[in-house]
Design brief:
Elements (H helix, E strand, L loop, with lengths): L5 E5 L3 E6 L16 H9 L4 E2 L8 E7 L2 H12 L4 E9 L5 E5 L16 E10 L2 E8 L6 H8 L13 H11 L6 E9 L6 E5 L4 H9 L8
Parallel strand pairs: 4-9
Antiparallel strand pairs: 1-2, 2-4, 3-4, 5-8, 5-9, 6-7, 7-8, 9-10
């Protein structure tokens, strides 16, 4: 784990980091010694309020408020679906050029729970052998939504030990040194609490994902 988180945005009300894969956002989800909230608190020397979550294996833009009023205001924006998120993922198979996955999801730990509406827009960006890099834009905010939706259309994410395929995950570990979930939160757009403008925050691909992609001949910067 890093000694400090990579800051990708900072102003008087907000700070965003490029969360590394393998790090939890909150303490309490597991017994990890290092979580993003505590690390950023120590790094900035002040309290921070996480406005959303990323799965442990997902890297990318993670947004925090620097005061309780901003946290309250923007948490509501996330809950109302007013925040636009753009993810990148490496998946099994030849993904469709464009697709809207409209598939309701149950609670991840309760197969008897009622399905809630869930939609994800997917666009293929590149292909490598029998695999694809896709852009995924969740239009709703269900737990593990992108991972579950891509599995639903038979394109599970590489490195996903819960929803993916072990043989493919092992191949990418051995051949390309990919030892993580190949899912990255690349961009987040939200109304700027300091004014009326829209704030766009981007997080570059970390080396543990960009390196394996480069070894496959995929340069997302050129797409």
């Amino acid at each position: 784990m890093p000694d400090a988180l990579e800051l990708v945005h900072e102003d008087a009300k907000l700070v965003a980091v490029n969360k590394p894969s393998g790090m939890l956002v909150h303490r309490g989800w597991a017994n990890d010694d290092v979580v993003a909230v505590d690390l950023l608190h120590a790094q900035l020397g002040q309290r921070v309020w996480p406005l959303h979550r990323l799965d442990r294996g997902t890297s990318g833009v993670l947004l925090f408020a620097l005061d309780v009023d901003t946290a309250r205001e923007l948490s509501g924006a996330f809950e109302r679906g007013e925040v636009h998120k753009r993810y990148l993922a490496l998946v099994r198979g030849h993904a469709p050029a464009h697709a809207l996955i409209d598939h309701g999801l149950r609670h991840v730990d309760d197969k008897q729970s009622e399905r809630k509406p869930a939609q994800t827009r997917v666009r293929r960006l590149a292909e490598f052998e029998r695999y694809s890099v896709v852009e995924a834009e969740p239009l709703t905010g269900r737990t593990h939504q992108i991972r579950r939706h891509l599995k639903h259309i038979a394109h599970p994410i590489i490195g996903d030990v819960r929803y993916g395929k072990g043989a493919h995950n092992r191949m990418f570990r051995e051949r390309f040194g990919l030892h993580r979930l190949a899912l990255h939160a690349a961009q987040l757009r939200i109304a700027d609490p300091s004014g009326t403008a829209e704030l766009t925050i981007c997080a570059p691909l970390p080396e543990d994902l960009s390196g394996p992609l480069a070894a496959m001949g995929i340069d997302l910067a050129a797409i």
